[in-house]
Automatic annotation (TrEMBL):
One of its GO terms (molecular function) is ATP hydrolysis activity. This is ABC-2 type transport system ATP-binding protein. Keywords: ATP-binding, Nucleotide-binding, Transport. The keyword Mitochondrion does not apply.
């Protein structure tokens, strides 16, 4: 299945609440069929509002959203039937069994009964042995699994995961991401919001960064890492230095507090990285190296830097 085909188109989307709070400001976004898109942003950035509008839970103040060609307002039922949503909050009837909860969710979307499909969903989520237990008897992690099963019950083409692993244990997180990969391999489009940046770095095909209601950028993960990630040359010294060598002063070189390490930050995409110049200059001053290696900025460092720069620009405006 082609991942270049647009399955969700968001155009000029905005949302201002009655209080006057502007949660979204003219968001444009195209989501490709069969991709995993991670939406990153601090609390209150607009991630949940964006998801809620696409899923038909919140009405937009302006703009348009189509899901596989269906308008989310004018063709609500058709659009919503294509979407599965796993919300942040644990919302279930605590007196129902796991099986009844998932079976009801399928029926609400008008799908014919399919016991074999629901059984497979529950098995994939390690819930089959719990199928006859009431929701109130389950742990928080198991309730989270049931939310995912409910979202998948009607065989959606698109799955939204809103902070799906917040507060869950490591095992559940691992199981969940394994399931996400399996769904993507089957052609399901997955959009997730997460505070766990390392998960977005591992899982996503593309990454969108939201801050203060604005979609700052959407890029292929590898392109984002390459364009915005800085590389660092880390030089371990044979003998500690008391001051930064004169030959590298004025360059992006820092001396560690203990004097045993120099760190040079550079743009790996630049025509001249300056690495050779730095090493030669140090050698001329008689600085001896114990070890030299390089590292690339993590997605978290890129994200924090972008949001910090955006907030600083606003403060100065």
């Amino acid at each position: 299945m082609s991942t270049s085909e647009t399955i969700i188109a968001v155009s000029g989307l905005s949302k201002t609440y009655e209080s006057g709070f502007q949660a979204l400001k003219t968001v444009d976004l195209e989501i490709r069929r069969g991709e995993i898109l991670a939406l990153l942003g601090p609390n209150g950035a607009g991630k949940t509002t964006l998801i809620s509008i696409i899923c038909g839970i919140v009405n937009p103040s302006g703009g348009k959203v189509t899901v596989d060609g269906y308008d989310i307002v004018g063709d609500y039922r058709q659009a919503r039937s294509l979407i599965g949503l796993v919300p942040q909050e644990l919302t279930n009837n605590l007196f129902d069994t796991v099986w009844a909860t998932v079976n009801l969710s399928r029926g609400l979307f008008g799908k014919a009964p399919n016991r074999a499909y629901l059984e497979q969903v529950l098995r994939d989520l390690s819930l089959w042995d719990k199928r006859n237990e009431k929701m109130m008897a389950l742990s928080g992690g198991m309730k989270r699994r049931v939310l995912i099963a409910k979202a998948l019950a009607h065989e959606p083409q698109i799955l939204f995961l809103d902070e799906p692993t917040a507060g869950v244990d490591v095992e559940l997180r691992r199981d969940m991401w394994e399931m996400v990969r399996t769904l993507r391999d089957k052609g399901v489009t997955i959009i997730l919001t997460t505070h766990y940046i390392e998960e977005a770095e591992e899982m996503a095909d593309r990454i969108g960064i939201i801050n203060r209601g604005e979609l700052m950028l959407v890029k292929e993960k590898v392109v984002l890492m390459r364009q915005l990630g800085k590389r660092q040359l880390i030089i371990q010294l044979q003998q500690p230095l008391t001051a930064l060598p004169e030959a590298v002063q004025g360059r992006a070189v820092e001396l560690a507090d203990d004097g045993c390490m120099l760190t040079y930050t550079f743009d790996a995409q630049g025509e001249q990285t300056g690495v050779g110049d730095i090493l030669r200059a140090l050698a001329r001053e008689g600085v001896e190296f114990k070890d030299v290696n390089s590292s690339q900025s993590s997605l978290e460092e890129i994200f924090v830097g972008l949001v910090h720069d955006s907030n600083r620009d606003r403060a100065q405006a």
